[in-house]
Design brief:
With 367 residues, this protein is α+β, with helices and mostly antiparallel strands. It has 2 domains: 237 residues, DD-peptidase/beta-lactamase superfamily (Beta-lactamase, 3-Layer(aba) Sandwich), CATH 3.40.710; 102 residues, no CATH class. The chain contains 11 helices and 18 strands. Strands 3-2-1-17-16-15-14-13 form an 8-stranded antiparallel sheet, sandwiched between helices. A hairpin with a 4-residue loop joins strand 13 and strand 14. Helix 1 packs antiparallel against helix 11, helix 2 runs parallel beside helix 5 and helix 2 packs across helix 6.
Length: 367
C-alpha cells in the first residue's frame, strides 16, 4: 500500500474506494510529469492472498494496440513501407471480397471495414491470417470514408505485415525492437509458457465481475501465451508508461532512440477528425493507432482522458480495465490498471472519477 503522505490523495482514495466497493481486487498506477515520477504504486491484491506490487504483470487488453502502431512507424522510418500503401502490396491474398483498396492508414485510423473477429479465434497465427484474408468488407463501407473501431481483426494484419517485412514474428519483433531497448524487460505480447510459469505470483490475473458480485479470475494462460497484437500485451503498468515516456520525449528514452521526433509527431497528430464511429456510437478523433482527445472534450468519450486533459493528449484504453496516455501540453504520462472488468458503464465511471481526482491532485501540487 502507498504511504499516507503520497502527493495524490484524491486519486488514491478513488482506487481504494473501488477496492472497498468490490469493483476490483487490486490496481496499479504510474504518473510522471516533466519526466519526474510522481507515483509508481500498487494497491490491493493481484489475486486472492497475493498482494499487488508495482512489478506485478497484468493484462493490458487493447492498451496494447499502440505498440503495433509504433512498430509500423519504425518500418516506415526505414523506408520499408508507406502509410498509403495498400495492404495487398505486402499480403496479396488479402485483396479479395472488396478489400483491395484498404491501406495501412485505413487500418491505423479504424476506417477499414472488416471489424468481425477471425472465424477461428484460437487457431494458429497462419490460420487466423487466412481467415482475415477471406473476410468480407462490410456492406456499404468505403474504406477511409466510414469509421468504426476494430477490436481485433485489423491488428493481426499489421502484425503480419511486420512479419513479412522484417522476418521476425510479431511477438519477437516487439520484444526485441521496442520492449527490451526501452527497458520494458517484463513486457510481452505472446509470452512463452515457461516464462509465464517462472513469473509465478508476479502474474496478476484479470478478473470478471459476475452477476452475484464475485470477482472471477481469468486463466492467464489463455491470454499471456497467445499473440494478439490488438490485445494480449502483458507487463507491469509502469512498463507501458515507459513506452509513453519515450513518446513524450519525442521518440527517445534513456539513450534509446525508437522514433524520430518527426515520426512521433506524425503518428500522434489528427488523421481522422470529426467522424462518427460505428462501434463507439459517437464522434472520435484518431491519430495513427492512438485515440486522441477532442478539441472540445466529450465527457463520455469511451476511454477518454477527462475534460482537464489537453486537446493534444493521445493514448489508448484497455477493455473495461486500463488506460495509458501522454498529455504533451502538461508533460504528463499516466498509466493505470484495475485488475477486474466490472462492465463498461461501471468502468467508465471509475475511469472518469480517477482522472478527475488525478488532475485535481496535480493542480494542488502545482500551487
Amino acid at each position: 500500500m502507498p504511504p499516507t503522505s503520497d502527493p495524490l490523495p484524491q486519486t488514491i482514495a478513488v482506487i481504494q474506494r473501488g477496492i472497498d466497493e468490490r469493483l476490483h481486487p487490486g490496481a496499479q498506477l504510474y504518473v510522471s510529469q516533466n519526466g519526474r515520477v510522481i507515483a509508481d504504486l500498487a494497491f490491493g491484491e493481484a489475486q486472492a492472498g497475493v498482494s499487488m506490487r508495482p512489478d506485478s504483470l497484468n493484462l493490458w487488453m487493447s492498451a496494447s494496440k499502440p505498440v503495433a502502431a509504433v512498430a509500423i512507424a519504425q518500418l516506415w522510418q526505414q523506408g520499408l513501407l508507406d502509410l498509403d500503401n495498400p495492404v495487398i502490396r505486402f499480403i496479396p491474398e488479402f485483396g479479395v471480397n472488396g478489400k483491395s483498396s484498404i491501406t495501412l492508414r485505413h487500418i491505423l485510423t479504424h476506417t477499414t471495414g472488416f471489424r468481425a473477429p477471425p472465424k477461428h479465434a484460437d487457431a494458429p497465427w497462419d490460420q487466423i491470417i487466412a481467415d482475415l484474408c477471406e473476410s468480407l468488407l462490410e456492406a456499404g463501407w468505403v474504406p477511409g470514408q466510414k469509421a468504426g473501431y476494430h477490436t481485433i481483426s485489423s491488428w493481426y494484419i499489421l502484425g503480419e505485415i511486420i512479419r513479412r517485412l522484417d522476418g521476425r514474428p510479431y511477438q519477437q519483433y516487439v520484444r526485441e525492437a521496442i520492449f527490451l531497448p526501452l527497458g520494458m524487460n517484463d513486457s510481452w505480447v505472446g509470452m512463452p509458457l515457461e516464462q509465464l510459469q517462472k513469473y509465478g505470483q508476479r502474474i496478476a490475473p484479470m478478473h470478471k465481475l459476475a452477476s452475484d458480485g464475485q470477482m472471477i479470475p481469468l486463466d492467464p494462460a489463455h491470454t499471456a501465451t497467445v499473440t494478439r497484437p490488438g490485445g494480449t500485451g502483458w507487463g507491469p503498468i509502469r512498463d507501458l508508461a515507459r513506452f509513453y515516456e519515450m513518446l513524450r520525449n519525442r521518440g527517445e528514452w534513456n539513450g534509446q532512440r525508437m522514433l524520430t521526433p518527426q515520426t512521433v509527431e506524425a503518428i500522434t497528430t489528427r488523421h481522422r477528425t470529426g467522424m462518427f464511429d460505428e462501434t463507439f456510437k459517437r464522434v472520435v478523433d484518431w491519430g495513427l493507432g492512438f485515440l486522441l482527445n477532442s478539441p472540445q472534450p466529450d465527457p463520455d468519450l469511451p476511454y477518454g482522458y477527462g475534460p482537464q486533459a489537453s486537446p493534444c493528449t493521445f493514448g489508448h484504453g484497455g477493455a473495461g480495465s486500463s488506460g495509458a496516455f501522454c498529455d504533451p501540453e502538461n508533460q504528463l504520462v499516466v498509466a493505470y490498471l484495475f485488475n477486474c472488468q466490472p462492465g463498461e458503464d461501471r468502468h467508465h465511471q471509475r475511469r472518469k472519477a480517477l482522472l478527475a481526482a488525478l488532475y485535481g491532485d496535480l493542480s494542488k501540487l502545482a500551487q
